[in-house]
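Hi, here's the filled form for the chain we discussed.

Project: internal
Contact: R.S.
Residues: 248
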Amino acid sequence: MKIGLFIPCFMNELYPDICMATLKILKEQNLDVDYPMSQTCCGQPMANSGCSKDVETLAKQFVENFKDYDYIVAPSGSCVSMVKEHYEPFFHNDSDYNKVKTSIYEICEFLHDIIKVEKFDVSFPHKVGVHNSCHGHRMLKLGSASELNIPYESKLKNLLALVKDIEIVSLKRDDECCGFGGTFSVTEEDISVAMGKDRIKDHIDSQAQVITGADMSCLMHMDGIINRNNENIKVMHIVEILAGVKYE
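And the returned structure, exactly as it came back:
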C-alpha cells in the first residue's frame, strides 16, 4: 500500500520531532510512505472562524494532493475529522473526495484498525495518563464516549499496552475536554484556561508523569498552562511513546 503522510501545518512548524516520530513508526511497519511537498493547512482554523471561501480553496488543494494514495495518515484527530466531516459541501459527491474521505486515518486508528500492530519494541517505564481529545474520541471513535453508557474501549490505550514497562493511570474523568477548541482558546480564554487546569489536575491527582494523546493541539494547550504554573508533569504525543522517544 502507498501511504500519503499528512502533517498538520502547526506541527510541521512547531513540532518537527513528532512529525519525524510519526514517519519512523510507519517506516518500521515496512510501509511505503510519501510526503506530498505541496500540502498545506487542512483549513480547520479558517472553518472555526467562518472563512468558508478559504476552506474551499484548501479543501480542493488537499484532495488534489492526496487523491492517488491508498491511505492518508496523520498524527492529528481533529485535522482528520476536518477532512472527513467538513469538506463535503465543497465537492457534491465528487469521486476524488469520496476516495480521500474513506482513505484518511488518524495514525492510532490506522495502526489499530488497518494494519493491526501487535507489538512495539520500545520501553517506557513511566506513569502515563491518556487525554482523549474531543474530535478523535467522538468523531473518529478512538474511544467510547462515557455519556453513551456503553463498555469502555480506547484504541490509544490498546496501543500503549503494547509498550514495555508502561503504567497507564486511571483518571476520574476519562474523556473531559481540555478547553483548547482551536479559536475557542482565543475568543474564550478564561474558560479555556480553567478547563485546561482541571484536565491537568486530574492527571496530577492520578500521579501521572506524562499526559499523552493523539492531538498535539490539545497537548500544546495544556503544555502552555503546565509551563506557566511550573507543574511537575510533562506532555508527549502518543507517537513519541510508540516510537521510543525517551522521557526527559
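Let me know if anything looks off before we file it.
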